[in-house]
Amino acid sequence: MARIVMKFGGTSMAGIERIRHVAGLVKREAEAGHQVAVVVSAMAGETDRLIHFCREASSLYDPREYDVVVASGEQVTSGLLAITLTGMGLNARSYMGWQLPIRTSAGHAAALIDGVDADVLERVFDESGIAVIPGFQGLAADGSLATLGRGGSDTSAVAVAAAMKADRCDIYTDVDGVYTTDPRIVPRARKIPVITYEEMLELASVGAKVLQTRSVGLAMREKIPIKVLSSFDDRPGTMVVAENAIEEDMERQVITGIAYEKNEARMTLTAMPDTPAAAASVFGPLAEAGVNVDMIVQSVPRAGERTDLTFTVPATALAQAVDVLERLRSEIGFADILTDTAITKVSIVGVGMRGNPGVAALMFRTLADRGINLLAITTSEIKVSVLIPEDYTELAVRVLHTAYGLDAESEA
Ligand code: ADP
Ligand code: ASP
Ligand code: MG
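Above: the input record for the complex with adenosine-5'-diphosphate. Below: its predicted structure, written as tokens.
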């Protein structure tokens, strides 16, 4: 007997037919003698629809009420799945985030999970029951409902898995595993059978939305093995595990995967003063306003001259970032703010990059050969990211995929 969390994404829950199919997968695990908790997303497209309603109601909506509206999508699917499972003769019940509870921080629309109480789940398992839990939602300390940010059901699933000390967390989605890049834009992408938490964390954080980044970080900390697989077929998926769990002699590529992120915006502050405090005067107020800054490029000015400071922020935070900095224009002392949202960050990730010189150079050469301009570059130990004009996204990902020898023999 094992303890398993099964998480089903929006495409898997889109409509009664699919929910019935999901119920069949849950039944199979329960009948194999496993203790199962199920975490579900809203039906595909539903969260977008609900967010749209909030915006229509008022452009200055209260984030608390936004949470009340958008959390409803998962409430519907968890109830429907519990009804379907019960109809199949299984002992299933839904438990909303506030009923377990899944405790979160106060940050509405982007709350963090503080912990999940396991008492209710233990009682359910004692009675050979199946708990169906809506992802994406929890209970803030002040008693209000909170949601976790887009894609947050993955994190709900891992948090539930940690609380119930699950043997693994199975993430069922609309692709049958983690691929070398998004299989929807590179048909020759290859499925990765086993990937380390560290690599998955980097890939997710630079745009591979197959898993929410926070879910991978939590799984790594709590040592929960994740399996990514399709709810539509039985093919083996991808295991996400610790580096020491991967056989050493396994043949490794230098680059494990390539990801892209279109939801970034570039900001340039022109004619910045060249003082030691200049960067802090920009990034301090942005941090206070909760704006995440990602890539930063600053050219070194000649003595006594001014320089441009370029950086990226999430596209959704651009208006706020401009507002914060405009107010401080005279204090910081820049001339102008230039912005550009038609950009993409493309990243290559792989632990094989460590101590392997020339990996970044191949990236720059490959893109230069196609005439693709690099607007910014950042690196970490196992990642190189470049900022390029958005129109070149698919071309860049495809040529890099080929250049690093990641293409499958035939199309997937
Ligand atoms: P769910 O609704 O099940 O949570 P998501 O849409 O959040 O599903 O994530 C699955 C999608 O992630 C896939 O349809 C695929 O287009 C995209 N994706 C991006 N990068 C990758 C990758 N490297 N491997 C697999 N899928 C990827
Ligand atoms: N329904 C939420 C979203 O679309 C959460 C999730 O599906 O993970 O972002
Ligand atoms: Mg998702």
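Notes for the reader.
The chain has a mean pLDDT of 93.
The radius of gyration is 23 Å.
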